[in-house]
Write a structure and sequence with these properties.
It is a single chain. The protein is about 50% helix and about 20% strand. With about 300 residues, the protein is of the alpha+beta class. It folds into three domains: about 90 residues, no CATH class; about 70 residues, SH3 type barrels, CATH 2.30.30.60; about 100 residues, Alpha-Beta Plaits (2-Layer Sandwich). The strands form three sheets. It has a five-stranded antiparallel beta sheet, with no helix packed on it. A three-stranded antiparallel beta sheet has the order 8-10-9. Strands 1-2 form a two-stranded antiparallel ribbon. The termini are far apart.
Length: about 300
């Protein structure tokens, strides 16, 4: 094919027509995408639902991607023999050069199909903890949160509680094949938390235990009721053994002190606030009761 006296190698009239059709196809896909986005915004004004919007966008992206692939194959490979040969060569090359990318894409479909997590869930994945704010074919985007100092594993942060650190982290979807994924909120949006104090053996441990239980009941009583219903519902989905959701105190004997550990339920997203409120109440109550707490020994 010649243009302005220049002969283009490999560009024939047929290939030129296919190139024009390809450009038209991309234009139509783009217009369709814009129309669907406008429709989603209009629906969102009427009814705000983050999860419904997320899954709608995922379905649109997958549908348009599939439509683009089918359109390109239909334009450029009208001969099935040529299509099979080209696909074989392309597949072999991609499988070798893009192994991690292919694994990430496979992880994306496993996440969707396996109900591993969804937008808005609080998870720990690939050593990163936080809330899922976006899910793509290759990567999952997480709003990172901190973790208490005694937590195991994960990336260390300067935030000493399960609250946002301010960093947005992208994690490869391939990580679901390498590491466990912890979901804090999907089927059971509560966690058991513990708070420990140490007393001298001469202290009134019965009174101390009652103070712990009273404080926990004031701040987590309604949470325990909701969690009890959630445990029952969870038992219908999985063979989970019955677990109490009421506050309890456990004793641990030390060489020169007694450790009392308060175990209680809290919302997965409000752990630090609840623990702070209980701690403040305990300090006032122990001061009023004349019970002195024993500091932990300092490691040399």
């Amino acid at each position: 094919m010649e243009l302005f006296g220049i002969r283009f190698v490999g560009l024939t009239a047929e290939n030129g027509r296919k190139l024009v059709l390809t450009l038209v196809l991309f234009l139509l896909i783009w217009l369709l995408r814009q129309i669907l986005r406008i429709a989603i915004r209009a629906f969102q004004r009427v009814r705000t639902d983050e999860r419904a919007e997320f899954w709608t966008r995922q379905g649109i992206n997958l549908g348009l991607t599939l439509l683009t692939i089918i359109g390109l194959l239909s334009i450029w490979f009208s001969d099935p023999t040529r299509l099979a040969t080209a696909l074989g060569l392309i597949t072999a090359g991609l499988a070798f050069a893009l192994q991690r990318v292919i694994t990430s894409v496979a992880g994306y479909f496993v996440i969707l199909r396996g109900n591993t997590f969804s937008i808005g869930d609080r998870i720990s994945m690939g050593g990163v903890r936080g809330d899922v704010i976006a899910l793509g074919l290759i990567q999952t985007t997480i709003m990172e949160m901190g973790e208490p100092p005694n937590a195991q594993g994960g990336t260390s942060t300067w935030v000493r509680g399960r609250q946002y650190s301010g960093r947005i982290v992208t994690v490869s979807n391939a990580k679901i094949f390498d590491d466990p994924v912890y979901n804090y909120t999907r089927d059971f949006p509560y966690i058991w938390e513990e708070l420990s104090i140490q007393l001298p053996y001469a202290a009134d441990r019965v009174l101390a235990e009652q103070i712990l239980l009273d404080a926990a009941q004031r701040h987590t009583g309604d949470i325990s009721e909701r969690a009890r219903t959630a445990v029952t519902r969870l038992g219908l989905l999985f063979p989970v053994q019955h677990a109490t959701t009421e506050p309890r105190v456990y004793y641990t004997l030390g060489t020169d002190r007694l450790e009392l550990t308060l175990r209680f339920m809290t919302d997965a997203r409000a752990e630090r606030d609840v623990k702070d409120a209980i701690s403040r109440d305990l300090l006032h109550a122990f001061d009023a009761a004349g019970i002195a707490l024993t500091p932990e020994p300092v490691t040399p």
